[in-house]
Design goal:
4 helices; sensory transduction; 116 residues; flavoprotein; alpha+beta; single chain; disordered C terminus; Beta-Lactamase; two-stranded antiparallel ribbon; PAS-like_dom_sf; 3-stranded antiparallel sheet
Length: 116
């Protein structure tokens, strides 16, 4: 799905302008270091109209990497049909699940957060 809106914070984080990214798929931020398994997980959730939250390694326009927590959720119209997916990027965060998979632990990478 194409990007139809990008916040100023997202533009600062990635180094791209709105003109460069509107209409693009979010995968333009991926590079060889991005986990194919995580990308497949995102795709599976989008195809099944389910929300997901993943720990993702992305890349800025200048080639530098940043880790973020990506949350993708379907947005439905009044009839329940999915019209688009909202993607939220939380920079400088990574996540791990507790051993019983009931608690999500978040961590901050102050370097990425302070660069915004």
């Amino acid at each position: 799905m194409p990007i139809i809106y990008a916040s100023d914070a997202f533009l600062l984080l990635t180094g791209y302008s709105r003109e460069e990214i509107l209409g693009c798929n979010f995968r333009f931020l991926n590079s060889p270091g991005t986990s194919m398994e995580v990308l497949e997980e995102i795709n599976q959730h989008i195809c099944s109209d389910q929300a997901c939250t993943v720990d993702l390694l992305n890349y800025r326009k200048d080639g530098s990497s940043f880790r973020d927590l990506l949350h993708v959720s379907p947005i439905r119209d009044a009839s329940g049909k999915v019209r688009l997916h909202l993607s939220q990027v939380f920079p400088g965060r990574s996540c791990t699940w507790s051993s019983d998979a009931s608690v999500l632990h978040l961590s901050n990478d102050d370097n990425d957060i302070n660069n915004l």
